[in-house]
Every structure is written in C-alpha cells, then in structure tokens.
UniProtKB/TrEMBL annotation:
Protein name per Swiss-Prot or TrEMBL: Fructose-1,6-bisphosphatase class 1
Protein species of origin: Sulfurihydrogenibium azorense
Domain Fructose-1-6-bisphosphatase class 1 C-terminal: 195-319
Pathway: Carbohydrate biosynthesis; Calvin cycle
GO cellular component: cytosol
Taxonomic lineage from the root: Bacteria, Pseudomonadati, Aquificota, Aquificia, Aquificales
Cofactor list: Mg(2+)
Residues engaged in binding Mg(2+) 1: E93, D114, L116
GO molecular function list: fructose 1,6-bisphosphate 1-phosphatase activity; magnesium ion binding
Binding residues for substrate: D117, G118, S119, S120, N205, Y233, K263
Record has Cell division as a keyword: no
GO BP: fructose 1,6-bisphosphate metabolic process; fructose 6-phosphate metabolic process; fructose metabolic process; gluconeogenesis; sucrose biosynthetic process
Amino acid sequence: MAKIGTDLNSFILEEERKYPNATGSLSRALVAIESATKVIASHVRMAGLADVLGKAGKTNVQGEEVQKLDELANRLMVEYLSQCGEFFALASEELEEPIFPEEGKNGKYVIAFDPLDGSSNIDVNVSIGTIFSIHRRVNSDVSDFLQEGYKQVAAGYVIYGSSTMFVLSTGNGVNGFTLDPSVGMYLLSHPNIKIPEKGKIYSINESNDKKWIDKGLKDYIESLKEEGYTSRYIGSMVADVHRTLIKGGMFAYPADSKSKNGKLRLLYEAAPMAFLTVQAQGVATTGKEDILNVKPTDIHQRVPVFLGGKYEMEKLKQVLING
Ligand code: AHG
Ligand code: MN
Ligand code: MN
C-alpha cells in the first residue's frame, strides 16, 4: 500500500507499474486532470475577488476576461484534457454535444465530467467540486459515452473545500490526496477509503418529501431518525458524497413529481460517484438497479441516486421492495 504523503504523480506511476503492458496513456490522462484541477482550485480560491480585482468591469487585473466560475472550469478542463492527447472525446455538463479534439484522434479514452458541481454554492463560500468518469474508446463515436458505469476505467472528483482534495479510483479501491498549497502537489492523506458499514447521517433534500415518488421513502427517513441518525445536506453532490464516503450514512437524490428521474446526471455525477462508492465497499442504486449497471441512452440523462453504507442501503432495499 502507498505511504501517506506519497504524491499523486508518483502514486499514478506506481499503479501503472503493476500492469506490465500499460503504455502510460491512463497515467498521462490522469495527470492532465490533476493539472486542470490545480488551476481550477486556484481560481476557486479567488472567487469573489474577481469583481474586486477587475474594477474595470469585465477584465481582471491580469487583463483576462472575468468569467463565471463554472464556464471557466469547463474551459480549463477542455483545454488540458484536449491537449494531453489521451482523450478521443470529451463530454461535459456545460456542453450540449461532446468534443472530439484533434490532438486526441489516437486517444484510447473518453471522459465525461461535471467541471463545477454545486455551483449554486460558489457565492456563499461553500464546498464545490469537479467530477470525472473515464471509459475506454471502443466504437470511436458518441456511443463510447453510452457504456455502463461498471466499465469505467477510472473515476474521481476534486473537492474545493476547506482544503482541496483529489479522490481517485482506478478500480483498486479509493484513495484521497490533499493539495499541499505550499508545494502545489496532491499528497496521499486518505489511503484506502472505506465507507463505514453503518453511519449516523442521512443526506437528502427533505424539503421535497411531499413530491417524492418512491412510496416508503418518507418512512425510511423517519425510521433512520428514530434510530438516531442526524441530517446533513450541503447541496453540492461532491461535498455530500465526500462526507458519506468518509463518515458513512447515506446520500440520495430521488425521483420526485417535478424531476421524474431525479436531478443528477448519470454520466458525470451518478456513475462516477457510484464507482467510488462501490470501490469503497458501499452500495449505489437508482432504487431499481445498481447505478453501475444502467446502460445510458443519452449523454445528459438523469437517474435517481441512493448511495451509502451497506446497512443503510440494505434497509432502503427492504423499504423500496415493500413500499
Ligand atoms: P451543478 O451545480 O453541477 O448543476 O449540480 C448541482 C446538483 C448537485 O451538486 C446537488 O446534489 C444538487 O444539485 C442539489 O440540488 P437541490 O438544490 O435540488 O437539492
Ligand atoms: Mn453537478
Ligand atoms: Mn456543474
């Protein structure tokens, strides 16, 4: 097992060495994500200062145009991931259609990402993040994005919180790296993350309870309360899932009468978080099937999400089956 303090680059290279036939493609792809997110992190840390520094109106002190942070994060992801040449195609929450970068025409992977998750929290200084999901290129067209989640080669997120953390799985468990701002490196701080089998927290936007479609969901939440669970809901999926991975409990965005398939997107929110959850020995379901088994039909499709520890998810299954 890698030692605490190992930097993410060395960790990635070390992982690659376990596969004698590896070409280094995935390592270069991951390093590109790493670089992009470091730049995004530095902009996130400046959020709120853009207007101060850019008194002239639309340009800041460096003469750059002041952009909305989610657009900026998207541009940075597209730039870094295109340039690395390892991605045949890129899909983003912020782009209607995928991009096929010229530099990636021989790329072996496709990537879907949410450049900035929880963007409604930017203005109030609450944690936000970047989520990504990598699949192999197989058909060399848009259908490469429509592969099931269990086929992901790697998935992860970066949380811009009280510190910046990169949480990654390449299918060998989950590891968390904290950005040391003094050296600009992500250092292994949370090796081998495992969701506690039973936690103490439920995380759901309870204001929607009258609209929930799943019969039994309200009773389920009530019975968690009776068991002594407490509520935490940040409203940034990255932050709510991050807490769930570390402290346990459950996180959900269910279907409701307004959002018939829930709110979260399969490709760049639900599937990567489900991959990490399962790699951390938790469970992730739509309520009907494992999220990782859902065959996507559309790049921006939504699915209901329930994820968490074994205890909470087993209890949920009983309720949804009997409900
Ligand atoms: P995004 O900022 O990428 O659009 O995602 C916001 C999502 C997700 O982060 C969070 O779990 C959810 O919206 C919160 O939705 P509600 O405000 O409806 O609870
Ligand atoms: Mn999002
Ligand atoms: Mn987003």
